[in-house]
Amino acid sequence: MKEVTKVTGTPINRIDGIAKVTGKAPYSMDHPVKNPAYAILFKSTVAAGKIQAIDMTAAEKAPGVIAIITHQNAPKLNVKGGLRGGALLQSPEIEFFGQHIGIVVAETFEQARYASRLIQVTYDKKEPKVDFEKLAGQARLPKDKEKADARRGDVQTALRQATYKVEEVYETPIEHHHPMEPHATIAEWNGDHVTLYNSAQIVNGAQTATAATLNLKPEQVRIVSPYIGGGFGSKGGQWANLALAAVAAKHVNRPVKLALTRQQMVNSVGMRQHNRQKISLAATADGKLTALAHETTTHCAINDEFVEPCGDCSKVMYDTPNSLITYRVVPMNLILPTYTRGPGKSTGSFALESAMDELAYKLKMDPIAFRIKNEPDRDPSNGKPWSSRATVQCLQEGAKAFGWENRKSEPRQNQQGNYWIGYGVAAGTYPAHQRPTSALVKLKRTGDHVAATVELAAADLGTGTYTILTQTAADALGLPIQNVKVNIGDSSLPPAAGAVGSVGAASYANAVNDACVKLTQELVVKSGKQFFVRPTAAQLMRSEKITDYQTRVDSKPPESAEAYSAHSFNANFAEVAVHQSTGMIRVNRFLAVTGAGTILNPKTARSQIIGGNVWGIGMALTEESVVDPRWGNFVTRSLADYHVPTHLDIGHLDAIFINEKDEHVNTLGVKGIGEVGIVAVAAAVANAVFNATGKRIRELPITPDKVL
Amino acid sequence: MRPFTYTRATDATSAIKLLAENPHAKFLAGGTNLLDLMKEDVERPTALIDISDLDLNDIKPITAGVNQGGISLGGLGKNTDAANHPLVRQHYPLLSQAILAGASGQIRNMATNGGNLLQRTRCPYFYEVAMPCNKREPGTGCGARDGINRMHAIFGWSEHCVAVYPSDLAVALTALDAGVIVRSANGQQRRIPIADFYRLPGDEPEKDTNLPHGELITAIELPKNRFANQSYYLKVRDRASYAFALVSVAAALETEGNTIKQARIAMGGVAHKPWRALKAEQMLVGKEATEANFKLAADAEMADAKPLTHNAFKVELGNRSIVLALRMAVNGGKA
Ligand SMILES: Cc1cc2nc3c(=O)[nH]c(=O)nc-3n(C[C@H](O)[C@H](O)[C@H](O)COP(=O)(O)OP(=O)(O)OC[C@H]3O[C@@H](n4cnc5c(N)ncnc54)[C@H](O)[C@@H]3O)c2cc1C
Ligand code: SF4
């Protein structure tokens, strides 16, 4: 048998690519179930108050209606079970506009929707708290200990003494995740066990939270989520719709399909909150930072708190003797905000990296040189050494590849036809973590043919989990990739971390690798032989004539990693063209340079990075969810109003990975790329807009009216 | 959706009859607007008469009558076909540009010329049945008047409605003095000048147009003109494609030497109808086609604008857009 060439680190195509483009990959609603009924949620049309009465007479008589469930007849659920956002039909209280107040189950989706519109609800209305402009002043310290004021040195004195400083406020609006696959569930009971086909970024988390909410044991709930049509954080923690699907199915004693409409997505599954960030920077004349303060004011739900960690980048990016990171939050009658791609870092880096650009301009320093000048040799927040840090390399290699030397240091110096051209740079970071994950590897031999099945309750958000795990297992077992089958996305498999916070690749790949190494070791022992060159598991299966063998590991991050501060780092470069008359902006070129340790597959990694870049460009230029401050409803409820970038908005994209071997972070040296791709994107674009036009826009998105 | 009956019409006469009989019936053409509105419970027809099989797709030269030498677009022709037809591209590039500036490739493939003219406003309060809206439900109030109105009107609005009309196609048609050919239940065909087709909201914002219920748009007629080499459709929007206009300008000039003989300017995204910029046009006739004159014309038109809370930018943007569109027009589409 000839050696199998290693595939880890090579750009193989997605394992699931063909199934997806041919429509064969089943998403949540595609799983076949017998005789399903269809459920639709109906919503509150006030933002605060209490339901007085619900008149269902007409709805109950409507064609096809099987059941209507409201707080009056819903089973008792555990509201602290771990599902986010409330809205579990447990009381008449209304906490936000669009809150679910009932379920209609009917024979078809349209019958359910029609009946839901015949329901008349009367409310005791209260004055809603929805106007952030008016309420920001009442913001208080968050309850979350992580968001306590973090102070080093004396920022105020340093600011007072400095000649060169920036003190500005940067605003980022509410954004929605809007994955292409809206949140949707099929619930099917079998006795007192329920199977939920529901896409989940954290398969085991969805299982335990739903079980607890339904007052069941985890093993009574099975989550099936082989494919996820995007999530971006909104399918990390799960929401009421998941449990309500199970409630409806139980109620009608039939499988139930419950999908949210696009319009319902805006107040059902979280959002990125509006952040008001004040950045204060001070520096010496030669560009050494003396103070950095990052003070965030935001909002959360009326009865629950979530605060994006906007100050995280400011904690670790630059060396400064004086630092202050604070958060203040005000409860409002809006849905609970949640993790949204690059949580805190994408928004926080917009503020920090815009301010860095402003200060570099005042100092008359090149913004790259200014950043390099303030490069910290250790993590300033905890004094730990970096496991690896490629910021300087990212900036320098990026500058070369991008042609940074062609940038004019003064705005309005680069004109092409009716357009001002500008270049911008920004640097960012996202922490790298490995989380406990189990994996089961099974080998089967038929003649000379050895095949492996790898199983774990991991998630593939469309990012490449199937592919990288196939590569990892193939190499670790000595098999070609065709002989490896990866089963994930099912809570009945060994428990795994979530595909959240950029922990997926590191947690899953290390667990699979550990399982394959362990299995090979066990086969060596089983053979009773000594080997000069260790054979692969595949070779051992053949030489020892074993037909079936399997092993499982519960993999954990190495304890030695604790001593280091581990992050992915990046630097982004944008070239924009701003129309002189209309203010319309086009990103001509965008380059992301990333240091993220071992890159398991350069093709899926590139897709991850440019996908993050595109969303970052959307954050910079187009995306905004707007609330009517009188009623608390979103006025941007469809993809015609909530603008994500189109092909025409995006010019040439390029991604470069720094060749980085991280010896400390984990066995495979994987740091994660899912989140970092969106970090420091909006700032690079905003800085380029300044370089083009001389206009500093501190409020996203940068729409034409702001540039006029 | 509310329950409705569905009939597939085979000829125009019976389709019109079916519609005229039921005040709550609607024609269904491409469905790209009507079906969305039905799903949102905004439109609630009790009967749909599907007219997509009617043989009204032709694009052909007009060989007789007042518009001889012009062309006629079938009312059920697809937007894509209209935009790409050689006669349109050659003689009315303005129209082709306007259509291609709207919606997306997929939607234009479904959308018909008649349906496009009758698409309804994108005002978010109109689309959300939990909100007040005089256009959807007369007497409930206007959600946008004191609400979020960045996308709304700066010309011709009333206290009852501040919505803008969304079509790009109709803005070009307005600049081109098109006529809408409609047929009524008694079999009569008439021509409504585009300027009379649309209306301002006044105290009846529920009426988008002056087309009575029960009439079918069979064609759109474009009169012959000499604008083909000097016209331009400029659309300013929040993203490069697939977004409604913040402001759009259809500009067309006929010049002799450098003197403007005729000028046509229509604006989108600023009013309850395509806004014909008559003041600007009058300023230009007989003048030299210069940047300074374009600016004077733009100033004259925009002086009457009455912005709302969030759309003051449209006044400056409209001004600049008129100037830019005229400049692009005289330069044959180049800046
Ligand atoms: C996301 C999105 C973005 C869009 N962006 C743009 C844009 O940027 N610019 C733009 O101009 N448009 C845009 N559109 C609108 C699109 O152009 C219209 O939806 C389309 O033109 C409507 O044509 P239709 O044939 O599908 O009409 P339908 O939806 O079938 O009908 C619309 C209305 O016209 C009536 N009707 C249809 N045909 C006739 C007829 N022959 N006689 C009498 N009444 C008739 C129907 O009864 C109905 O009331 C967008 C649409 C969407 C969904
Ligand atoms: S502007 Fe017109 S369409 Fe919009 S809410 Fe007011 S009345 Fe309704």
Explain the layout of strands and helices.
The complex is a heterodimer of chains A (708) and B (335).
Chain A: H1 17-21, E1 37-43, E2 49-55, H2 57-61, E3 65-70, E4 93-94, E5 100-106, H3 109-116, E6 120-125, H4 132-135, E7 150-152, H5 155-161, E8 164-172, E9 184-190, E10 193-198, H6 203-213, E11 221-224, H7 240-252, E12 256-259, H8 262-265, E13 275-283, E14 289-301, H9 312-316, E15 323-332, H10 345-363, H11 367-373, H12 391-402, E16 415-416, E17 419-431, E18 437-446, E19 449-455, H13 465-477, E20 484-487, H14 504-527, H15 537-543, E21 548-555, E22 567-579, E23 585-595, H16 602-621, E24 650-657, H17 681-693, H18 704-707
Helix pairs in contact in A: 10-17, 13-14, 16-17
Chain B: E1 5-8, H1 12-21, E2 25-28, H2 34-39, E3 47-50, E4 59-61, E5 71-74, H3 79-84, H4 86-91, H5 93-100, H6 105-110, H7 113-117, H8 124-127, H9 169-175, E6 179-183, E7 189-193, H10 194-197, E8 216-222, E9 231-236, E10 247-256, E11 259-268, E12 275-276, H11 278-284, H12 291-302, H13 313-330
Parallel strand pairs in B: 1-3, 2-3
Antiparallel strand pairs in B: 4-5, 5-8, 6-7, 6-8, 9-10, 10-11, 11-12
Structure write-up:
- Chain B: InterPro entries: CO_DH_flav_C, CO_DH_flav_C_dom_sf, Diverse_Substr_Oxidored, FAD-bd_PCMH, FAD-bd_PCMH-like_sf, FAD-bd_PCMH_sub1, FAD-bd_PCMH_sub2, Mopterin_DH_FAD-bd.
- Chain B: It comes from Larkinella rosea.
- Chain B: Residues 1-227 form the FAD-binding PCMH-type domain.
- Chain B: This is Xanthine dehydrogenase family protein subunit M.
- The complex is a heterodimer of chains A (708) and B (335).
- By secondary structure, chain A is of the alpha+beta class.
- Chain A has 3 domains: 17-25 and 434-556, 2-Layer Sandwich (Aldehyde Oxidoreductase, domain 4); 31-127 and 180-230 and 235-265, Aldehyde Oxidoreductase, domain 4; 275-433 and 563-707, 2-Layer Sandwich (Aldehyde Oxidoreductase, domain 4), CATH 3.30.365.10.
- Chain A contains 18 helices and 24 strands.
- In chain A, α10 (345-363) packs parallel to α17 and α13 (465-477) packs parallel to α14.
- The model of chain A has no long low-confidence stretch (mean pLDDT 97).
- By secondary structure, chain B is of the alpha+beta class.
- Chain B has helices at 12-21, 34-39, 79-84, 86-91, 93-100, 105-110, 113-117, 124-127, 169-175, 194-197, 278-284, 291-302, 313-330; strands at residues 5-8, 25-28, 47-50, 59-61, 71-74, 179-183, 189-193, 216-222, 231-236, 247-256, 259-268, 275-276.
- A 5-stranded antiparallel β-sheet of chain B has the order 4-5-8-6-7. In chain B, strands 9-10-11-12 form a 4-stranded antiparallel β-sheet.
- In chain B, a hairpin with a 2-residue loop joins β10 and β11 (259-268).
- In chain B, α5 (93-100) runs antiparallel to α9 (169-175) and α12 packs antiparallel against α13.
- The longest helix of chain B is centred in the last third of the chain and has 18 residues, at 313-330.
- The A-B interface holds A 45, 63, 110, 113-114, 117, 263, 417-418, 581-584, 586, 621-622, 626, 628, 630-631, 633, 635-638, 640-641, 643, 645-649, 703-705, 708 and B 1-3, 39-41, 122, 124-125, 127-131, 143, 146-148, 150, 234, 236-244, 246, 313, 316-317, 320-321, 323-324, 335.
- Flavin-adenine dinucleotide (FAD) binds next to β2, α2, α6, α7 and β8 of chain B.
